Amino acid sequence: MKSLAPHSDLQMATMLAGIAMVLLVGILLGTLAKKVRQPAVIGEILAGIALGPSLLGLLPGDLSHKLFPTDVRPLLNAVSQVGLTLFMFMVGWEFEKRLLRPHRGMAAAVSVCSVGLAFGLGVGVSALLYPHHNTVNGHHISFLVFSTFMGAAMSVTAFPVLARILTDNRLTHTRVGTLALASAAVDDILAWCMLAYVSALVTSGGPSDLVQVLGLSAGYVLSMFWVVRPLLAAVVRYFSDRQQWRQLLVILAAGTFLSAYATTWIGIHSIFGGFLFGFIMPREPAVKLAENLRKPLGHISTVLLPVFFIITGLGVDLGGLHAYQYAELAAIVAVACAGKLVGAVLPARIAGLGWRESGALGLLMNTRGLTELIILNTAVQLGVLDGQMFTMMVIMALVTTALAGPLLPKASELMAGATVDVPVGTPERATP
């Protein structure tokens, strides 16, 4: 029987049905992931992949395409960008300078070493991958753009997922936990800066355009810190004193979207606007902000972020990988693990941590999770990655994140290290 609804209404209804399916499968796989010591986000990412061409698409009837038709995917992408932009605001807001104080020198050493080694190895492996993946949709990609992106992708540590893993394993207040949080926060800042540079390289048409993008970006960052930040502090203080949290939440969401628009217009990506607006967001009064703003925003992410996972899953096609690309995949995973594990373990050992604590720190710094998926999807939108590279990099993100849960020592085995109080209001969960 054919529906009598207009085509536009059917498009919208199909999108809503697809979102419902993603949410339900995400809850199921997220629950199963927790049972095997994995963060729920692993299951939710797998839900997106399972509903795409890698699993559902293999069944008779082309079910994946029927559930997510081509003309509906732009609508799904638009919804996912709303959730993603708000999530990036949360990521920026979660950066706490106070996290760096307990182990400032060690955190800097771990972060710089792990980022530097991971970036260098990423650039190195890109030399092997580039000849096979230097053309995306008929457009040639320069080695500078490709290698810089690979270095940035290898360098990232997923701060929100790491915080969730620490909470699940009761490691938040251990020396390793606080050090991992501090180092991951610095890692993310460096990785976003590198990705912003890649975005500027891709969107600029030449040296003069690149100078314009970089100049406008620098001006925007300065204006956000010198002009918007004090104004935002006054706005937060005004509404929080009057307990007008609903109005403040709307203002923050509007500011996040406007900031995302500004960075998009400049020529870097909307995610940087959301991140930067969150970065300049006041942290006090911490308890009230956490209760009245962080929680509602977290609930919004719980509903909207799974849409981002299906956008990711629709681009992952395991069946599209050729035999030799599994060797490329193995090299990517090996390089990703080596860069973070060695880059974190060595400075930790030099600083006096034991092998058990240093190894746990390396495993934590090796988690990439949702943050990596954001970087990968940004690269696809910029035209830096082809479908096969995207598939391999998503698998790498899943593998490196999944390693932490089963291999981490128990909390009791790490409690011999000094414990440190985590600042009030520090997020323990930013992912659904």
Structural description of this entry:
The protein has helices at residues 7-35, 40-50, 63-67, 73-94, 104-129, 143-155, 159-168, 175-203, 207-241, 245-266, 270-279, 286-314, 323-350, 355-365, 369-382, 387-402, 404-407, 411-414; strands spanning 135-136, 139-140. Helix 1 (7-35) packs across helix 2. By secondary structure, the chain is an all-alpha fold. A hairpin with a 2-residue loop joins strand 1 and strand 2 (139-140). 74% of the residues lie in helices and 1% in strands. The longest helix has 35 residues, at 207-241. The model is unreliable at 414-432 (pLDDT under 50). Strands 1-2 form a two-stranded antiparallel ribbon. The chain is built from 18 helices and two strands.
Please work out how many helical segments DSSP would assign. Answer: 18
Strand order of the largest sheet: 1-2
**SS content category:** mainly alpha
| % residues in beta strands | under 5%
Helicity, as a percent range: over 70%
Poorly predicted runs of 5 or more residues: 414-432
SSE series? HHHHHEEHHHHHHHHHHHHH
State the distance separating the first and last CA atoms.
38 Å
Most strands sheet: 2 strands, antiparallel
The coarse overall form would be: globular
Overall number of strands: 2
Radius of gyration: 21 Å
Overall residue-averaged pLDDT value: 82
Record the SSE blueprint.
Elements: H1 7-35, H2 40-50, H3 63-67, H4 73-94, H5 104-129, E1 135-136, E2 139-140, H6 143-155, H7 159-168, H8 175-203, H9 207-241, H10 245-266, H11 270-279, H12 286-314, H13 323-350, H14 355-365, H15 369-382, H16 387-402, H17 404-407, H18 411-414
Antiparallel strand pairs: 1-2
